[in-house]
Each structure stands twice: as structure tokens, then as C-alpha cells.
Amino acid sequence: MLQKGIVEPMPSSKDYLNFVLRQLSGLEKITYRQMMGEFILYYNCKIIGGIYDNRLLLKPFKSAKLLMQNLVYEEPYKGAKKCFW
Description:
Order of helices and strands: HEEEEHEE
Number of helices: 2
Radius of gyration: 14 Å
Distance between the termini: 30 Å
């Protein structure tokens, strides 16, 4: 039973995964692995982030932080290291 104001996480949809993969289609060697209802994203066999509750979250690499502004950090799931979107 949920408490008022608490949103229960839902698994990410394959439709959202496909949307993200289309956006990244210009990059070679993008792969994914489904884990516990979510999707882990890889670039050149290295984890770059994932799709959690239909949100694309990226690991906070220095190079990505230099290219992007106004980053918002969130936990992919409770207790995880924060990623940004």
C-alpha cells in the first residue's frame, strides 16, 4: 500500500527505449541490456547510463558535464549514485 504523495516506480517501456535509441542512432556501438524492468545503456561496451522509470539518466562523466549546462541530478533508484538528465 502506498502512502499519499508517494509514487511507485514503474518499469520503463520498450517504446521509450526505442525513442532513445533513435535519438542516439548517429552513434555507433550503442547497445543496451534489460535489467529488472529498466535498461542499461552502453557505448563501445562501457556503461554510459540507463533508462529508469522512462527517464534517460547519464553517468556524470567530466566530458559530458563540460558539454552540457543546467544539469539536473537524480538517483536512478533509491540508494544509487546520482546521474543527470
